Amino acid sequence: MPSRAANYPALSEDAFIERASARLEEVYGPRRDEVMRRLMTLLMHHRSALDSLPRPTWSERDQILITYGDTITDGERPPLEVLDDFLATRLNGTFSGLHVLPFFPWSSDDGFSVIHYREVNPKLGDWQDVRRLASRVDLMVDLVINHVSRDSLWFIDYLSGTQPGRDYFIEMDPETDLSQVTRPRNSPLLVPVSTRRGTRHLWATFSEDQIDLNFANPDVLLEFIGILLYYVQQGARLIRLDAITYLWKEVGTRCVHLPQTHAIVRLLRAILDFMAPGTLLITETNVPHQENMSYFGLDRLRPDRERQDRERQDHDVDPAAMPDEAHMIYQFTLPPLLVHTLTSGDATTLSEWARSLPALPPGCTYFNFTASHDGIGVRALEGLLPAHELDIMLELMHRFGGYVSMKTNADGSDSPYEINITYYDAMKGTRRGADAWQVERFLCSQNLMLALQGIPGVYFHSLTATLNDHGGVERSGKLRSINRRRWPKEELDELIDSRSTPTREAFTSLKRRLNIRASEPCFHPEAAQRVLDTPAGIFAIERGPLANGRRLLAIYNISDTRQPLKIDELNDGDWYDVLKDGKRWSPHPDERDILRPYRSLWLVQP
């Protein structure tokens, strides 16, 4: 396999029209032709401003830093400028991509309640700062598509009964039976609002300040397509569809993953493949594992696996025959499952889950991560962990200084939705309690994530081994603030440059590991992955073999005790340790048959 993926060709205009018309038929039925005419007018308006040359889709060099625009502050300097300097001086070449969490004017939820979609929050900088970042790395931008701030002009229009916002929201009789609706929060689903027409009740999935938009109105969809293309014009290479699961509402259903939602995701994919090929669509769907996988459109993939494998090798890909939904999905199962694995010292469930992952065709891959700006979602563990195992993990996270956020179920009861804790403090100990292995355990979690098939995303506070920010929770009243600390640049520099701090150890170790990973072709997102048979205290995978025969073994002791290194593949000739400058792997006699606690090995066979 070459070291990078092919330049996937753009959709032709005829292929795009056929595909887009079919998707609009699924969403709007008899209004399809009218909406299609308006869509083509909109696209032609933007076409001259977009780069239509296809770009490589991804390679082993792809790894993404996730951060708020103001995670680092430095006096009066614009935080986006400070972030750019940090990338240039501290992380030059380490990350291929950067996810700057919503940098627009907002009213709540640290950016995810957007007031103006086409403006940059002046407290962070301006579009010139954003474009400068986009010139340095591949920029991921959030399309906060499900809801909007009550302070937005659209909502002000709604209150006064004027267009366009008058019909942008979902009014609902409060007596309507909405008990089937899947809830990610325990706040009321309907919010009373005083308008010139009297009190109305509006759909609000997440909070009373985040009012859901009405995509049954095609004006709303066309508005967001224009916003999407504007972000691409400003340099966005990856578009993250925030909370896309909940987009379409239909009374009498769960209101998640509805066919119209999938059709709209597929339409947005077609628009990018037509207008800006190589721009990637990533879905953020914090739901049980199999539901999450549906955003690849796996039910629509061709069954001809041999042909898929041949195309993957030859990179002779027909875009009309490729999967046509998300390029990437967030691997939401991984963060809580790694917490379970490393605090229990048992990799059995992790190995079984990893074995269950399907082989993906060209054009699809996972976005792997352990921490994000949100909590560690636990819904993805449904069907994987028994209830008593989940309870043990939640109680342990409380002991390590974390919190648990709840959601409301159809029967009115509450159940856990996510753990609010920094990932570093989630690794404070095992079920026996806190211990001296926190740094090693944490680094093992990161090293394991980096080796899995897909593209890794590293949250800034993992890079700096940030502790729980209880002061932030007290100031904001929001549990998620525990993992959203803002670093004064002087303080962060001191911690990174000091001789012995967890921040320095995590930063230097992860940076070194990321730089090694970026030069190893076995970590190409499309390189095969196979889970090896190991004792419960060991997790191991093989990546490859590539077309030239090269393969890599990633092996981890996920426990706090020495583990037997009983892996048959280690007897298959000579192996070379890429973590030690590619030297032949010749372990110390005391380590030939055992692996020390939380030790990681990346061994290659050229």
UniProtKB/TrEMBL annotation:
Q: Which SMART domains match?
A: Aamy (SM00642)
Q: What is this protein called?
A: Alpha-amylase
- Record-linked Pfam families: Alpha-amylase (PF00128)
For the ligand (substrate), the binding residues are D109, H147, R240, L241, D242, H373, D374, R480
The source's superkingdom equals Bacteria
What are the BP-aspect GO terms?
carbohydrate metabolic process
User: Keywords assigned by UniProt?
Assistant: Glycosyltransferase, Transferase
A molecular-function term among this protein's GO annotations: glycosyltransferase activity
Which parts of the sequence belong to the Glycosyl hydrolase family 13 catalytic domain?
Answer: 63-517
Query: PANTHER family annotated for this entry?
Result: SUCROSE PHOSPHORYLASE
Please name the InterPro entries in this protein's record. GGa_phosphorylase (IPR033746), GH (IPR017853), GH13_cat_dom (IPR006047), Glyco_hydro_b (IPR013780), O16G_dom_2 (IPR045857), Sucrose_GGa_phosphorylase-rel (IPR016377)
